[in-house]
Structure formats: structure tokens, C-alpha cells
């Protein structure tokens, strides 16, 4: 057999080791998996760049160029993979979709004497999802194939065999485009070059992802919805974000402020004002240290420009203390008309007399410094206005008053305006401080008042448990204000406040136990006063219903026998016992002709059978 070392493909710049081994296997007339086994390893280990795989091949005289290993991802602990010195999540760099430049692949075929599907090679930088363009040919990377299984996905020769004709015929070609600044910067970072900019000091994957997220948010400045941008146009989002972010943090902050001016106010919510950007940084990348610089920029920006208070969310962390007020939130906290509030604050020198175009919702000031003035401006309110102020219906308000949760500031029967809006805000803050933001009501969650209604308890019990930290499943529903936004995990409430199961059997269970079915017969017996039952509270529904306690059961058994209890007591089959009783004239218990089923008076049975 000829020496396999003589049948080796020419390396291609930036080729992956899996691609090279697949082509080498094809030149030796076998598939990649069989070739790897023949060399004392496995193709999966080659894909993973496991050192033992290459040691085994080297022992047989097969060494691979270092460049192949450089442009192939390798495990770097946990779920991370390293490619040319940059870390990527495995699910990002090893996604099932394989992309490539069809012009590069045609050039591979033209420059080789091997069959086209053997000459075509996969490049390592094509695996980076942020790479969308081949700089050599200005051709977008085109989808080649998709396969969830790594061994067959990276056996490139087998896959190119299926599509080589399409590539050669140009059927995968797309419209070319000029490279953007982001395209050039990304390729420079992958090849180890640095332009010395601020972004060069940040992890590559985090930078590229942030540019895409920022570009998506910036679409609002062009009045374009993210849904309108197709996958083939993602390169434009990268460029939009890169163009803004590359100068540094100050430029990013300026862009965030421009986006805020498009909103009516903070009440629109950060997810609407910073589409995708806020959601990803506050949840998906919340614990990823490589995104910390970008989280800090957005967090500092919001902390300095947003009037956040208890119940609000700041990048996944609940706000527990108000540091900034706006004219709008100050008006809400005091119950004063917003226009009047601005005039009063302007007179006190807290906000400008004339707005510079900044709406009241964004006109912010130090909350602690202004609190004494706000306290003096606060006016008491009548009950109807106070209920609306805290976001409660009148019936919900009445229940809160009945439970002592809310109390009037004045005890004056002839005065309607006795409710202090400051106390209303304190009440809401006590519920919403630490509440998780909810975009919709999760399964099993209820509004606080509804949860109380289901358990047949007052809302005060739930509120007390929340304040004591016994109930932690509390959320603030997006799009609702005040008390209307407060939702709770009903299972959590039931765990803390639900009654213990009574030490008794339900009517249904006891009827099955003694064999008196259907249970409606036992209910008739109880209703007729012929056997006792005890009214207890159902732990789930909180409703009172009849149960059979141990004493009730003993009373039943002292007076009655059923075929099942007959058999248990006399040690014979119920069929023989009931037949004997019929022969001796013993009839089921049926006063006034009522049908209680196969139920017998114990005294009659014992007299007949003894």
C-alpha cells in the first residue's frame, strides 16, 4: 500500500483542521470517521482539537500545519471555545449552520487537480457568526448546509459532494457589497491586528454582539422596526452600532440619550426605548463578565438620567430606593397636577422655569434634596381620588381599608380629603420594592386581590407576609401602574397562608372507604340527620364543607354496616352474608322509603347473624 503521507491535500489559508482531515481521508478513499479510527483516534476528537488525537496521528507520521490548529476552535473550559485567541460560546461558534464564500470555493477547485468536492475547504473565520462577508471577493457568506450532528456536519467532503455542482454553476452566488468599517475591524481583530481604539480593549465576541444590539436599537432613529431587517441585512446593524460605539463611552451615551428623546417618557419602559439591547444585557448576558463594560455604560446612563423608584428594574436588579425624581413622578407621589408641580418646582429653583424641550417625564432632580419641599406641597385627597392615585378599584381600596392596610391621615367625619398620597406611595413601595418585572402574567400568578379572594382571606394577610419577607413571589406587571401592577405567585401565597389539611376525610373518600357509592347516598344520610358530619374549612378553596372526623366515623360504624364492612367484621364474603340476610328478612335501612343504598342497621344484622 502506498504511504498515506504522500496523499495529503495542500493546506488552504485559514482552513480548519476538520476540513483538512476530511479532505485527507477522501484522498485516501475513505470517509473522515473511518480515517480517524484508522489513525488511532476519532473524528470528534479531531473536531474538538483534542491533543491526544494529534499525538496519535503524529505517531503514524502525520503532522498538521500549525495554521490549521490556529483557525480551529478548541475547548477553553466550560462551554467556551477559543479561536485565534478569542473566546466564543460553543453554541455560537459551533452552530449547526455552515456558511462559506462560493467564490472562494470555486477558486479552491480551480487551483487543484483533485476533484472539486475534495479541493473545497472550510475556513475557520466562516464559523464566527459576526463575519458576514468575504473580504477577498466582497461576497456575503452563503448558507452551505445545516446539520445538528458535528461528525457529519464537519465531514466537509461528504457535504461538498452533494452541492459542488451548484457552487461551480454559481447558483449559491449573491449580490456583492463593499466591506463596512465593522467588517474590516472584525477581520483585523481575528488576525491579531489592533487599531488602538476603545473597542479593541474589549472581548471580541462581546463587542460584536453589542454593536449588533446597539444597531438594532438605533433603528428607532430611522423609524425602522427590527422585524423589517432580514438576516441577510444584519451586516448593516453591526455597522450602525460600530459607527456609534467605536469612538468610546461618551459617544454611546449620546446615542442612548437620543433614543430616549423619541419616547414619551421612562414609563414606556427600557425594553421599548432600547429594543433588544436592554433585554439582552439585563438577562442573557447579565452574568457574563465579558459584557460588564457595556452593562456598566447602560446601567450608569439609566441611573443618571432615569427617575427610577421601587418596583422598577435596572438591568435585572430591582430598584429599592428612589434617587431621582422627575416632574411627572413627583406629581404622582404628591397627587398634585403635573403642570402645577412644575411651576412649584421651578419657583423653588429645582427645575428650570422654561423647558428646553425636555418633557416633564425626563426633567429630573435629586429626590432626597427635594423631599422637604414635596412634603410641603402634598395635599390630602378624597377616597375616590386616592384609590385612583394608588391604582386600585374602589372595591379593592375598601378591602385594604377594612384590613387596616390603609388608614386616613385625618379622623374628621365631615371632611372628605383625609387621605395622604405620600402614605399611598409608601404603601406601593413596600409591595414593589424587590418585585420582579413581568412582561405578562406567568402561569399560576394572580393579582394580589385575586389571590386573596381565591383563598377567602383579606389582602392584608398577603401584604403583611410580603413585608415580612415570607412571600417572595411578587412581580410588577409591565403596562400597569400602582396596585394594579402587583401580582403574586399564588402557590407561594398558598404555601405561606393556606390552611393545613384537616385531620378528617371528605364525604367522597369516606363513602369509598365503606363502599357506600355513589357518595351522594352518604350525603343524603347526613342531610337526613341519620349520621353525623363536621363542617371544616377546605385548605385549598378556603370554603367550609362537611368532613367525616374520626368521631363521626366511629358513630357511623356503631350504627351501620355495609357489605364491605360486613365482610371485614364477619370474615366471610359479602355475597354470602347479604344472601343470608335476605333469607332472614333483613332489608337495607330505608326510613320513609328513602334509598341510602346497601346500608344495614348494625343491631338488625347482629341479631340475625348471631
Structure write-up:
The protein is α+β, with helices and mostly antiparallel strands and 610 residues long. Among the domains are: 4-168, no CATH class; 181-306, no CATH class; 505-609, no CATH class. It contains 32 helices and 20 strands. β8 and β9 (317-318) form a beta hairpin. It is flat, with a radius of gyration of 38 Å. The N and C termini lie far apart (101 Å). 35% of the residues are buried. Residues 1-6 have low confidence and may be disordered.
Helix content: 40-55%
Measured by DSSP, the beta-strand proportion falls in 5-15%
Q: Strand arrangement, largest sheet? A: 12-14-15-13
Radius of gyration: 38 Å
**Terminal Cα span:** 101 Å
| Silhouette | flat
* Count of separate DSSP helical elements: 32
What is the oligomeric state here?
single chain
Low-confidence stretches: 1-6
Give the overall average pLDDT.
Answer: 89
Helix/strand-derived category reads alpha+beta
Query: Can you count the beta strands?
Result: 20
The largest sheet is:
4 strands, mixed
Pfam families: TniQ (PF06527)
InterPro entries: TniQ
Protein name: TniQ domain-containing protein
Features:
610 residues; alpha+beta; 4-stranded mixed beta sheet; 3-stranded antiparallel beta sheet; 32 helices; 46% helix; disordered N terminus
